Amino acid sequence: MKKILIANRGEIALRINRACKELGISTVAVFSEADRDSLHVRFADEAVCIGPPESRESYLNIPRIIAVAEVTNADGIHPGYGFLAENAQFAEICESSGFFFIGPPAKVIRKMGDKVYARELMKRVGIPVLEGSEGALEDLESGREICEEIGYPVMLKAAAGGGGKGMRIARNLKEFEIGYRLAQAEAQAAFGDGRLYVEKYIENPRHIEFQILADSNGNVLHLFERECSIQRRHQKLVEESPSCVLSPDLREEMGEMAVRGAKEAGYVGAGTIEFLLDSERKFYFMEMNARIQVEHPVTEWVTGVDLIKAQIMIASGEKLPFKQNQLDLKGHAMEFRINAEDPHRDFTPSPGKVTSLHIPGGLGLRVDTHLYTGYIIPPFYDSLIAKVIAHGKDRMETLNRLERAVEEFICEGVKTTIPFFKRLLQDESFRRGEIHTGFIDGWKGE
Length: 446
Prior knowledge:
Elements: E1 3-6, H1 10-22, E2 26-32, H2 39-43, E3 46-51, H3 62-71, E4 76-78, H4 88-96, E5 100-101, H5 106-113, H6 115-124, H7 140-150, E6 154-158, E7 168-170, H8 173-191, E8 196-200, E9 206-214, E10 220-232, E11 235-241, H9 248-264, E12 269-277, E13 283-289, H10 296-303, H11 307-315, E14 332-339, E15 341-342, E16 348-349, E17 352-353, E18 356-358, E19 365-369, E20 376-377, E21 384-392, H12 395-408, E22 410-412, H13 418-424, H14 428-432
Parallel strand pairs: 1-2, 1-4, 2-3, 4-5
Antiparallel strand pairs: 6-7, 6-8, 9-10, 9-12, 10-11, 11-14, 12-13, 14-21, 15-16, 17-20, 18-22, 19-21
Helix pairs in contact: 4-5, 7-8
């Protein structure tokens, strides 16, 4: 590829732009009117406005993005994460229009985006899944019967879901009936698909995901795990690798299962197989994300593999340049997601002008951000404004570097989640790695 259109914004657009430049590939940025002064616009070789601030009129407007790719003579389109990254129709249109879609094939996105299908596929190849419905629930009554059979508590999930939408925990019949209606309405509004499925709910599990790379020649491998158990409303806040609870044998077993699942799905590109791990160290398939993840820098630091470059090379038809036995874990890495939110007011979004900014630095620190002094954070998009990633010889050194980083990170003019992370770093249970997906429920980082 000689030119790539970056169909995204913010820090991920900058990250893709950097990888392209290192590969000698020209870049085209697209931007909404709200992002006219963004850094991804400044640093790309070309930039084209694709519409007003609202996402549906700009970053989700497929015809406009394709039109820009055509007039700028782009070869490929990288969707980043979010927006159109897991939109099978977009991938299909890219392919049919003659562009390399830097992601998995449309048919794979469509299949794995259906959580019910993905669950059944994993069961077929022997990957453990939680007890639950065999497919989507036909109606409320069929859901009641399954819940009686597997026992409460249960988790209702949207078949076409993601990002924590369309999910409800039910600990009894009344909560199930209320949750069913709420989850169905939320799923319909978010995904245009109100189908739900139900599975047994595990109290306070760990969330462990395995990074997958697969080329078009049938080579599939994993780049070890990331633990993503520190969450708020099913949204990840902290990710680290390696997990401090996986033994070498369990890591190998889960990695082999992840590769097996990706092969069965016919996967090509970068993606993740996600698991829940219970208190007895039993793991269960949760879902597959058919895109690059926000937390990909964590894996890059402990493996030395540039995942964005790998995506581009795979989309160009190249073979993976390494084998599974050539990969190993180097030290420990952890990422904090910094959002423009007020942790003292239940994480209310805080858009506005950045009046003063200082980015932390030093050995073992990486900050991915699109911020600069004077930048106006728009209210129209996700509140993620920076990712602080630390690497050390072990978890303790990594935590100490993150502690230094959040003390040095100055972002004035808007509220951020930095105070939340300062408090988190003082929590002894967190520092010992005694974490789970419900860890921060009940405390807001005051």
